[in-house]
Design brief:
This protein has helices at 14-30, 34-38, 53-56, 61-71, 85-91, 101-108, 123-131, 144-148, 163-173; strands at 44-51, 74-81, 113-121, 157-159. The protein is α+β, with helices and mostly antiparallel strands. The protein is elongated and about 60 Å long. It binds inosine-5'-diphosphate and magnesium ion.
């Protein structure tokens, strides 16, 4: 029954909810242990990944996706789409004046791409580390770019580079209803309680 994987949200009356909230607000300043404090901070992050035309065209989608799944990242959004000049001028706004921008535009619109929203503790950093340096020739072996690319432009994946960028980029490529919040049934074997 795949519904078991969904986050279980118990029915709770507004009255009970207010009580729990009041208890938490008193308890929070009292809980000085790191583990207890962490429970009240939002440590699960979401990040945006794009499988570029260089990944789609070369049939690398499954292998790259498997790396993220193997790592324990949680897929909360995934779809195929055709990028346009308009969305790329926004997404690569920091590069529009660079001489290689027309070439980057052509490359990123050459085939449809696959966009993903991945969730995890410190997901933005974790995914960037897995992605490797921009230029595939400089990226460490073992990273996605290091293992699957030899080019500065045709570097198979995009990954958000900061929490601010991640938020904007997820909203740029997904409608809110396309991001599905859920928790795998086996989350306790991916993280310890204080890590999620
Ligand atoms: P990033 O993808 O590692 O975050 P950015 O500097 O944000 O790197 O550049 C976005 C994308 O633009 C790169 O992934 C790459 O495809 C392309 N790009 C960046 N610099 C160059 C370059 O010097 N020549 C060709 N393409 C480049
Ligand atoms: Mg970038």
């Amino acid at each position: 029954n795949y519904n078991r994987a969904q986050t279980q949200k118990p029915d709770i009356s507004p009255f009970e909810f207010r009580n729990i909230l009041a208890i938490r607000m008193i308890w929070l300043p009292l809980s000085i242990r790191k583990g207890q404090m962490l429970k009240y901070l939002k440590i699960m992050e979401k990040t945006l990944v794009i499988f570029k035309p260089s990944a789609v065209e070369r049939g690398l989608v499954g292998r790259i996706l498997a790396r993220f799944e193997n790592k324990g990242l949680i897929i909360e959004g995934i779809k195929m789409m055709q990028l346009t000049e308009e969305i790329l001028r926004e997404h690569y706004a920091h590069l529009v004046d660079r001489p290689f921008f027309p070439s980057l535009l052509r490359s990123m619109t050459a085939t449809p791409v696959i966009v993903l929203c991945l969730k995890g503790n410190d997901a933005i950093n974790v995914v960037r580390m897995m992605t490797g340096a921009t230029n595939g020739r400089k990226a460490q072996p073992g990273t996605i770019r290091g293992d699957f690319s030899v080019s500065g432009q045709e570097n198979v994946v995009h990954a958000s580079s900061s929490p601010e960028d991640a938020e904007v980029e997820i909203a740029r490529f997904f409608r809110p209803e396309e991001i599905i919040e859920w928790t795998p049934a086996g989350i306790g074997f991916i993280y310890e309680p204080d890590e999620r």
